Amino acid sequence: MTWRQSAGVSNRSLSTSDASQRLHAGDLTYAYIVGLIEGDGFFTITKKGKYLTYELGIELSIRDAKLIYKLKSLLGVGVVSIRNRDNIEMISLRIINKNHLKSFILPIFDKYPMFSNKQSDYLRFRSALLSDVTYSIDLPEYTRSNKPLNNIKSIINAHYFPAWLVGFIEGEGCFSISKLKDDYLVASFDISQTNGEIIISAIREYLSFTTTIYSDKTNCFKLKVSSVRSIENLLKFLNKAPVKLLGYKKLQFLLWIKQLRTISRYSQKINIPSNY
């Protein structure tokens, strides 16, 4: 069963106006949204018969329902739906109204461009949307290029990168505590992305991590850290970042730092924040 809810007309006009003003004023929460979408979202042009459907979407576990509604509030547009996928309850936010995409979504992604090759998907999406390509037959064939659009330096020098990174961590990061032999506890943080070597390398350099980046047969690049220095660098970044985690990942992070205080390896050497 699927349940859908769309923003009411009266609320939409007010919220989108507010969203536009906040974006124009440089509210970096929208850079956070770009990072989250770059991690877990998608831009698609779908052929339905002879017509095309344009869509920006993101689907998360139902535990992130509050985050999905927060995104809807921040953007002012979109339809929320809930469904079961392989017996797992999922919640999504999708925007398919062309006027909403043009007026409220494109300005965000124009102001805060994505860093990975997902940007190529966006540029194709943007071009077709603004050109009013309506029929399937008129849509050019497309294959995403494997050539990086950015380098490590250009990514970390982007003024909005810290806010983007918080959003990307929201989507792709993981905080965990592992028990090794003799009940020895180790805290770790990992982050990954398929075809994301440049992105993960930029994060590694920005946070001064020294751990090696690994890739698997699916070309997923993963970085995992557990050293005292790396954990300290991560805590300092998240504590001082211009935006905060907003979804379930925030709860995961709060429980993680609570456990950190009980592990002497970290608590005796790191100034662990008391709140977030």
What does this structure look like?
The protein is of the alpha+beta class. The protein folds into two domains: about 140 residues, Roll (Endonuclease I-creI), CATH 3.10.28; about 120 residues, Homing endonucleases (Endonuclease I-creI). About 45% of the residues lie in helices and about 25% in strands. It contains eleven helices and nine strands. Strands 1-4-5-3-2 form a five-stranded antiparallel beta sheet. The protein has a four-stranded antiparallel beta sheet with strand order 6-7-9-8. A hairpin with a 2-residue loop joins strand 4 and strand 5. The longest helix is centred in the first third of the chain and has 16 residues. The chain is globular, with a radius of gyration of 20 Å. The two termini are about 35 Å apart. The N terminus is likely disordered.
Short précis:
The protein is an alpha+beta fold and 276 residues long. The protein is built from eleven helices and nine strands. Helix 2 (29-40) crosses helix 7 and helix 4 crosses helix 5 (118-130).
Features:
about 280 residues; alpha+beta; Endonuclease I-creI; 9 strands; globular; disordered N terminus
Number of domains: 2
Q: What is the tally of helical segments? A: 11
What is the H level of CATH, i.e. the homologous superfamily of the largest domain?
Answer: Homing endonucleases
Low-confidence stretches: 1-14
Q: What is the CATH topology assignment of the largest domain?
A: Endonuclease I-creI
**End-to-end separation:** 37 Å
Query: Which architecture of the largest domain does the CATH hierarchy give at level 2?
Result: Roll
SSE string: EHHEEHEEHHHHEEHEEHHH
Mean pLDDT, to the nearest integer, reads: 91
